[in-house]
Amino acid sequence: MTAARSSDGPGAPGRACRAVGRALRLPFTGAGRRIRRATHAHGAGESGLGRLIELHAVNGAGDVMITVALASTVFFSVPTDEARGRVTLYLAITLAPFALLAPVIGPLLDRIPHGRRAAMAGAMLTRALLALGLSGAVATGGLELYPAALGVLVASKAYGVVRSAVVPRLLPPRFSLVKANSRVTLSGLLATGIAAPIGAGLHRIGPEWPLYGACALFCLGTYWALRLPPKVDSAKGEGKALMLPIGAKKPGLRTVGPSVMHGLQANASFRMLSGFLIFFLAFLLREHPLAGQSAAVSLGMAGIAAGLGNALGTAVGAWLRARGPEMIIATVLGVVLSAAILAAVFFGAGMVAVLAATAGFCQALAKLSLDALIQRDVPEEVRTSAFARSETLLQMSWVVGGAIGIVLPLNGALGMSVAAGIVGAGAGMSVRGLLGAARGGSSRSRPRVA
Questions:
Q1: pLDDT category, 292, cuts 50, 70, 90?
Q2: d(Cα 408, Cα 228) in Å, to the nearest integer?
Q3: Which one is predicted more confidently, 275 or 289?
C-alpha cells in the first residue's frame, strides 16, 4: 500500500500540471477548432478553399501590422505638412511600379501559371524579410524606409492578383465563385479587425514590434501557401482574356463582354473613391478631429465605419449573387453618389461616418457583383486571366484616388464634392451600359474562346 501511494504521489503534480496546461490551452484550441470548422464548411476543406481562406486571413493580419507601424512613423509622428510630403513621396514612388505591374502581372500569370503557390509564398516571404528591414528604419523615419515599404506594397498587391486567379481552382462542388470570394474577403476583414488593436498594443512596447509580428505572420503564410493543393498550379484548359475595346459592337475571341467592362469601370471608380477617402480623411481628421476626440481616434472611428460597411456588404453580396449584378452595381453607384452629395452639402462628423460606411458597403457589393459578371460572362478558359487583369486595374485606381486625396486642400465640403465627382464620373461611364445589358437579359451572347 505504501509503495502504491509513493508511486502515485509523484504522478499527481504531473497530472495537475497537465490539467492546468489543458485548461490554459482550451480557449485557444477551442477557438482554433471553431475557426477551422467555419473555414472548412460546405466542402471548402476538401477542395482546399479553406486553406486559402486561412492564408488570406494571415495576409490581412500581416498587412495591418505593417500599416500600424508605418502610420506611426510616416503620419502621426511628424507635423502635418511634413506628413503630407512623406505620404506624397510614398504614393509617388508606388504609382510608377503599378504602371509597370498592370501590363506585366496578368501576362506573367498567363505564361507561368504553374508557379502560383511559389508566387504566393514568395510574396509572403518577401514581406517577412522587408518587415525585418523596416523594423530598423521606423525608429529614424529616414528615406531608407520608402524602398522597403514600396516592396511590401508591391508584394502585397502581387499576392492579391495571384490569389484572385487561384480561387476558381479551389471551388467546392455547387459553390459559386462569388460565395467563395466573399468568404475569402470576409476572412481578411475579420483578421484585420483582430490584428489592428494587437498591432497598436505591440506599438506601445516599441515602434518595431508590430513589424516583428508581421514578420512572424508572413513566415507562417509562406508555409501555408506552399501547402495549398497542387491543383492551384494547374493551368489545364486556360487561356488569355482580352478586354473588349470601347465602342466595339461584338465581343471577339478571348474577349470579355460589355457587362464586365462597364462593371469594371464602376468598380474602378469605387476603388478610386476608397483611396481618396482614406488619405483625404486621414489628413482632414488629423487637423480637424471629431468633436471631443483625438486625431487617431477620429480616424479610427471613420475606419471602423468603413470596415463594418465593407463586412456587411460582403455578407449581403453573397446572398444577392444571383439577383442581377448589373442592377446591383448601378444601384449602389446611385446610393454612394447620393451619400457623397449629402456629405458635401451637410458636411459634419455624422455625414463623414455615413459616407465611409456607405462607401464600404457599396464597394463590397459592387466588387462581388463584378465577380459574378466575370463568372457568368467570361468562359472558364480565360476567367483566371480576366480576374488578374481586373484586379491590377482596380489597385491602380486606388493609388490614383489616394494621390488626389493627398494634394487636395483640407476643406471638408470640397473633399466630399470631389468624392461625389469621382463616383459621378464612374456612373456616367457605366450606368447606361449596365442598365442596357440588364434589359438584354439572358439574350446576351457569351464570349467564345478559340
A1: low
A2: 44
A3: 275
Compute CA 362 distance to the chain's CA centroid, rounded to the nearest angstrom. Answer: 15
Q: Compute the distance between CA of residue 167 and CA of residue 384 in angstroms, rounded to an integer.
A: 8
- Of residues 80 and 155, more confidence is placed in 155
Give the position of cell 480557449: 27
Question: Do 241 and 383 contact (CB within 8 A), yes or no?
Answer: yes
Tell me the pLDDT band of 221, cut-offs 50, 70 and 90: very high
Q: Is the pLDDT of residue 296 over 60?
A: yes
- 418: pLDDT strictly greater than 90: yes
Please write down the HEC assignment for all residues of the chain: CHHHHHHHHHHHHHHHHHHHHHHHHHHHHHHHHHHHHHHCHHHHHHHCHHHHHHHHHHHHHHHHHHHHHHHHHHHHCCCHHHHHHHHHHHHHHHHHHHHHHHHHHHHHHHHCHHHHHHHHHHHHHHHHHHHHHHHCCCCCCCCCHHHHHHHHHHHHHHHHHHHHHHHHHHCCCCCCHHHHHHHHHHHHHHHHHHHHHHHHHHHHHCCCHHHHHHHHHHHHHHHHHHCCCHHHHCCCCCCCCECCCCCCCCCCCCECCHHHHHHHHHHHHHHHHHHHHHHHHHHHHHHCCCCCCCHHHHHHHHHHHHHHHHHHHHHHHHHCCCCCHHHHHHHHHHHHHHHHHHHHHCCCHHHHHHHHHHHHHHHHHHHHHHHHHHHHHCCHHHHHHHHHHHHHHHHHHHHHHHHHHHHCCCCHHHHHHHHHHHHHHHHHHHHHHHHHHHHHHHHCCCCCCC
**Which amino acid does the sequence have at 153?**
L
Cell of 440: 438584354
- Tell me what pLDDT residue 425 has: 93
Does the predicted model carry a pTM greater than 0.70? no
Place of cell 459616407: 355
Q: Is the CB of residue 74 less than 8 Å from the CB of residue 216?
A: no
